[in-house]
Amino acid sequence: MDLDLFMEKYGFKILLGIMALVILGLFVVPLLGMVELIKRFGLEIGLFMIIIAALYGFIVWRRTSEAYAEAHGKYFYDDKWYKRK
Questions:
Q1: Residue 82: pLDDT band by 50, 70, 90 thresholds?
Q2: Which of 81, 56, 54 is CA-nearest to residue 70?
Q3: pTM for this one?
């Protein structure tokens, strides 16, 4: 069996398996990190640290990312910005 025939028969199955492993890894690795955090520091402190990290992500990180994107949009992608200045 040559490579073309092999890829025609099994290529999409292999690609689907690789993509499934990547997507599964995106969920499993953070979950394992949270479990390790809770085991290392205890339930109360571990959950508190997870909640603080989530709040930081939703409040601080989002605001800085939006400001960064707005600055790039204004200076790099707006063709008429220098005319309005």
A1: low
A2: 81
A3: 0.55
